[in-house]
């Protein structure tokens, strides 16, 4: 519903988006300057203030006047209300400000409308703030003075100037201001702002009504069903009949009537509006910023996370149309601005962040090889011509996004500069914009395979681990730091393991190094849970890192990391069938991709034996017998089970190298359900999550082994 107050004192009420016959009534004798909507007890009220000195309360459902107040002796210029009411009482209260330099407090109550009068002030009123907990109202005037009023009694406590006045205002809480504005001022907390612009032609005089949509506020308000309605204004109707039909039938949306045009508001508060014309696709031909703004708004507002009305199918069709079909349908189509979209590559709103990333990838994917090279070269050349540091940061961010989302697009000649730029965004002195820093952190992790040749990976990994352990870090940055560390570990697990092993091999072991190593072990646990398949080539190295944390002669690190190391061993055994632990003898056996077996002693934290080429193919599963004297190994590619003698001597030390006592052909072994094994994939890309459920390899007695799938 849109409510408009006019210069002749009338009010029009229009139901959006298709209401060609609005309700209109005469409310005041002169121009309406301010309006306020209040909903109480499920009833909608409208408060109006006018040049005729009156404040009036109306029922929106009946357009009947509920109350009229004539306490001001000048035009009523603005209303103030609580932005976030702290109680039901303040949800029904508001202040009015007049040219007579007074402030009046009202309550939505027919018997007791006026609660207090605060004035008159020596100069025109500039702003009104408050401290509701202490019961004070602060009225600032254009001369810089501040009047301090007690709200309960209406008594002026003091009038102050200078630093005292500025200190009071800086510590006071703002009130939401509603007034007729000569210049456009938008609230970051307001979903929709209605602006009336006086318009005149030779034929008639009529206002131009503008609606300013705050997409982030509409997205944040999960219960607001209006975001369906306002997508009627944004959606490009009339160019794809099947999609139009879906919007009408599934989402109950329809084209706006009367027709609309589009505009954009600059940082100075000035509005630029397209002249209405028959070409409904004109907004996609104006500028890259306009295209990016509309594409991001349309797709993000129909994201399934916002409302159940938008199914995954509906969202997918709208996304495909905006990103793939529309650019081909529009002559002289201007591609979306990547720098604008990059601002939302990291965003607190999931729908906006996901949409910006999808559109960026679609822009890159629609280009041919030459187009991609040209795109990268254009952005890369801007790094050397751009003087504004903020714009340079955005240029780096755009190139980093391209490199992380589509690594093959980025020429090697540009990687060094871009890598340094990303690191500068993360670690430069004084810090960069928090939002850009968070985005850069994710880009670093996602594109690590591209960046690692241009940086010191060992130093970087430990820097990130230290940063993650830094207290008082913002949650978005902490989350993305964790993600970056995990993605680096996933990309190159052996490098990651070597990096976290380096510091604890130093001669001097400090508390800080031990604490960093504990954090690193915790990340290993997350890697095992989230990306187990990436660790398959690194299992023997991973076991060595855990063992190094349990070295008996390094008491401090063993004491600190003991519990975490034990948990890691448990996770390994649970997740990977080619890792087996015998609790009584405290021995850990690890099978490798190259077919070798490695046995570790956890008591002494040493490597006992490595059996090279235990199998000609990779080891699939291991199992200790109950006494820990024999180790069974299985290779699905070789289709063979081998039993190794691992008896210890009387001192608990492995004497001779384990030897293979028996080997069984899987197909000829009765205890193996062969029909369940023949269809298993043995490719290197097989996921370890599924492997742990596919294989069951265990001893049932001293002489019996079972190999089966559940």
TrEMBL record:
GO cellular component: cytoplasm
Superkingdom: Eukaryota
InterPro entries listed in its UniProt record: ARM-like, ARM-type_fold, WD40/YVTN_repeat-like_dom_sf, WD40_repeat_dom_sf, WD40_rpt, WDR72-like
Sorted UniProt keywords: WD repeat
Gene3D superfamilies for this protein: Leucine-rich Repeat Variant, YVTN repeat-like/Quinoprotein amine dehydrogenase
Entry annotated with the keyword Secreted: no
Alphabetized PROSITE patterns for the sequence: WD_REPEATS_2
WD repeats: 45-68, 118-159
Name by which UniProt lists this protein: Uncharacterized protein
Species annotation: Arcella intermedia
UniProt lineage: Eukaryota, Amoebozoa, Tubulinea, Elardia, Arcellinida
């Amino acid at each position: 519903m849109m409510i408009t107050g006019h210069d002749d004192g009338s009010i029009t009420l229009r139901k959006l988006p298709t209401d060609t016959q609005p309700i209109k009534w005469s409310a005041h004798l002169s121009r309406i300057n301010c309006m306020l909507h209040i909903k109480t007890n499920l009833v909608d009220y409208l408060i109006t203030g006018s040049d005729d000195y009156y404040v009036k309360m109306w029922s929106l459902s009946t357009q009947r006047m509920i109350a009229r107040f004539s306490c001001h002796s000048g035009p009523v210029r603005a209303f103030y209300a609580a932005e976030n009411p702290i109680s039901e009482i303040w949800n029904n209260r508001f202040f009015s400000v007049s040219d007579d330099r007074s402030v009046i407090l009202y309550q939505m109550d027919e018997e007791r409308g006026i609660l207090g009068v605060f004035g008159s002030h020596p100069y025109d009123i500039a702003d009104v703030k408050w401290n509701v907990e202490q019961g004070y109202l602060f009225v600032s005037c254009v001369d810089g003075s501040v009047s301090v009023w007690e709200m309960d009694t209406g008594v002026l406590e003091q009038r102050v100037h200078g630093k005292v006045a500025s200190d009071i205002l800086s510590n006071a809480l703002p009130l939401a201001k509603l007034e007729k504005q000569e210049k456009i001022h938008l609230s970051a907390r307001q979903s929709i702002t209605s602006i009336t612009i006086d318009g005149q032609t030779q034929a008639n005089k009529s206002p131009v009504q503008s609606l300013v949509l705050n997409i982030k506020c509409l997205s944040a308000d999960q219960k607001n069903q209006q975001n369906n309605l306002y997508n009627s204004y944004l959606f490009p109707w009339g160019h794809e009949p099947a999609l139009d039909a879906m919007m009408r039938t599934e989402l109950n949306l329809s084209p706006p009537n009367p027709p609309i045009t589009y505009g954009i508001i600059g940082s100075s508060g000035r509005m630029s509006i397209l002249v209405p014309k028959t070409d409904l696709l004109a907004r996609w031909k104006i500028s890259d910023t306009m295209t990016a703004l509309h594409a991001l708004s349309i797709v993000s507002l129909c994201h399934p996370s916002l409302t159940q009305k938008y199914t995954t199918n509906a969202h997918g069709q709208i996304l495909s149309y905006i990103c793939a079909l529309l650019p081909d349908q529009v002559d002289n189509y201007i591609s979306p601005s990547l720098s604008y979209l990059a601002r939302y590559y990291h965003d607190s709103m999931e729908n906006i962040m996901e949409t910006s990333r999808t559109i960026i990838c679609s822009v890159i994917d629609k280009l041919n090889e030459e187009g991609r090279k040209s795109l990268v070269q254009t952005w890369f050349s801007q790094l050397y011509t751009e003087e504004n540091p903020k714009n340079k940061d955005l240029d780096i961010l755009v190139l980093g996004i391209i490199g992380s989302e589509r690594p093959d697009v980025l020429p090697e000649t540009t990687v060094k500069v871009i890598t340094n730029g990303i690191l500068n965004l993360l670690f430069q002195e004084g810090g960069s914009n928090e939002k850009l820093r968070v985005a850069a952190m994710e880009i670093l992790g996602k594109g690590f395979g591209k960046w690692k040749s241009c940086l010191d990976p060992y130093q970087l990994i430990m820097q990130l681990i230290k940063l993650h352990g830094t207290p008082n870090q913002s949650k978005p940055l902490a989350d993305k730091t964790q993600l970056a560390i995990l993605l680096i570990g996933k990309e190159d697990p052996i490098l990651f393991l070597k990096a976290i092993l380096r510091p604890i091999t130093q001669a001097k072991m400090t508390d800080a190094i031990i604490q960093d190593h504990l954090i690193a072990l915790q990340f290993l646990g997350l890697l095992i849970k989230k990306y187990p398949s990436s660790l398959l080539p690194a299992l023997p190295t991973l076991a060595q890192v855990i063992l190094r944390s349990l070295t008996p002669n390094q008491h401090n690190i063993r004491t600190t990391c003991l519990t975490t190391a034990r948990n890691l061993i448990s996770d390994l055994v649970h997740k990977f069938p080619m890792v087996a632990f015998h609790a009584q003898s405290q021995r850990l056996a690890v099978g490798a991709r190259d077919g070798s077996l490695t046995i570790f002693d956890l008591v002494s934290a040493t490597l006992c034996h490595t059996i090279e080429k235990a199998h000609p193919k990779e080891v699939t599963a291991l199992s200790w017998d109950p006494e820990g004297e024999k180790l069974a190994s299985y290779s699905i590619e070789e289709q063979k089970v081998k039993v190794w003698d691992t008896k210890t001597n009387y001192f608990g030390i492995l004497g001779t190298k384990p030897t293979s006592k028996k080997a069984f052909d899987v197909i000829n072994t009765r205890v193996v359900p062969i029909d369940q094994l023949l269809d298993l994939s043995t490719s290197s890309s097989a996921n370890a999550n599924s492997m742990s459920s596919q294989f069951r390899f265990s001893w049932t007695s001293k002489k019996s082994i079972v190999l089966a799938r559940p």
